[in-house]
Sequence to fold (392 residues):
Amino acid sequence: MYLLISKKLYMKKLILILSVFLFLFVTCKQGKENTDNGFTALDTLVKKASFQKSVDGKQTDLFTLKNDSGMVVKITNFGARIVSILVPDKNGKYADVAIGYSSIDEYISDDTYSGAIVGRYANRIAKGKFKIDGKEYNLPVNNGPNALHGGLKGFDKAVWDANQKGDSLQMSYTSQDKEEGYPGKVEVKVLYVLTTDNKLKIEYEASTDKPTIINLTTHGYYNLKGEGNGDILDHELEIFADSITPVDSTSIPVGKIESVKGTPFDFTKPYFIGQRINDRNEQLKFGAGYDHNWVLNNKSGELALCVRLSDTLSGRVMEIYSTEPGIQFYSTNYFNGTHKGKSGKPIKYREGAAFEPQHYPDSPNHANFPSTILRPGKVFKSETVYSFTVKK
Fold:
């Protein structure tokens, strides 16, 4: 009898101890989740192993930059693409503000240039033709009647060489003579640097052994609510530009520089992206929304503020600084849910905003546009900075 009572008491004590342990475990876990602010859940959606593959005989991988402020940027060397940008909102809750995918296979089949370095010539060239010193060159046509973003296999489909040192990552790629129809062997370097004050700096450099054209940019899509959390029509936008280069029905500049005053393209003061995007306007019709080049007010060639994007609900603000003379703003007018983002949610109509600091589209065919010709002995250099802050 005594042994039976003792055994019962022992079991009660054991159950009590296990219950206390379980309570403490759950409480600690919940506490961790509360202070984690959703960071771990987002961070684990993009895994290094999912980006390791042999493509065209070269190894792809995923590289992570993280600063002491808690901002994280993940980049793959396939197309030198920005895959993920994790930043907090005004309450400290994290979101991934870069549209992208969770595996290398999805990027291989991607047709939206998501997060990529695009080149040799970013944007469009009319009918895939241009001249240097009187000699005509022909490029593959891949966007209606025009050449777009470097051709059928541009820099976005190349496996770049990568070298990471702390919170800086250098990507390099050699574009061979006549690659996609472009003249000259071009050596390209792109340096990503994540600073302690939540700035992602991107420095571009290129040299050539023959006269060629060069126009490099980063083709990232951004949603300050976080990927998969709705459209960007309620984002407030400022573009520090008084003019655009109007286009024809195939999105090729007609050669003019026109004032934005009195048009839906006037973002010299803040407007919601969706406020005028459906106005009856020929240029909006041609682009199916915003898909145009703004002529930036900065004429110095020095680094200057060109875009400020804000989300009132989260308090997140993204500012873009660049040395480039123009910036292409594209309101993802052709996204239709075909592709799924890192969270598994479809990327729907106008759920991202692309801002591409660059020279003007079709510059080689317009003498009045800033030149994009690069000659041997000269070095192309450009810089863009994406700065993330919160407004409470």
Notes: The first strand starts at residue 53 and ends at 55. Residues 48-390 form a domain with the Beta-galactosidase; Chain A, domain 5 fold (CATH 2.70.98.10).
